[in-house]
Design brief:
- With 102 residues, the chain is an all-alpha fold.
- Helix content is 59%, strand content 0%.
- The protein has four helices and no strands.
- It has helices spanning 12-19, 35-50, 58-75, 82-99.
- Helix 2 (35-50) packs antiparallel against helix 3 (58-75), helix 2 packs parallel to helix 4 and helix 3 runs antiparallel to helix 4.
- It starts with 11 loop residues before the first helix and ends with a helix.
- The mean pLDDT is 84.
Length: 102
């Protein structure tokens, strides 16, 4: 503010800052391969339907059901990443291996 006139003036820096445009961010959808995760969900669900729950299998079955639910949520998540899909696929694959013992 000019003390003599009482007029507020804009500095050159302020004018330049206000003239800067925000760049438009275009997000590109990356194709995520969910086929293996979908296949593993189906296999685990099929195997779960064949198992009878008892003291030995209860925790294994519960863990597998939780993984299946997480996988289904992830498959419906628009913000999923390939890394998350791969991690869950690996966990489901491990569950299938454990089921072979029962």
């Amino acid at each position: 503010m000019d003390k003599k006139t009482g007029v507020v003036t804009e500095s050159v820096t302020d004018t330049q800052a206000s003239a800067v445009e925000t760049p438009e961010v275009v997000t590109e959808k990356v194709a995520i391969n969910t086929a293996s995760l979908e296949d593993l969900v189906a296999k685990v669900e099929s195997r779960l339907s064949q198992l009878t729950e008892d003291k030995k299998t209860k925790s294994v079955i519960d863990d597998a059901k939780n993984l299946v639910n997480k996988a289904k949520e992830l498959l419906n998540d628009d913000t999923k990443t390939q890394a998350k899909v791969d991690v869950l696929a690996k966990q489901l694959s491990s569950s299938l291996s454990i089921f072979k013992q029962y």
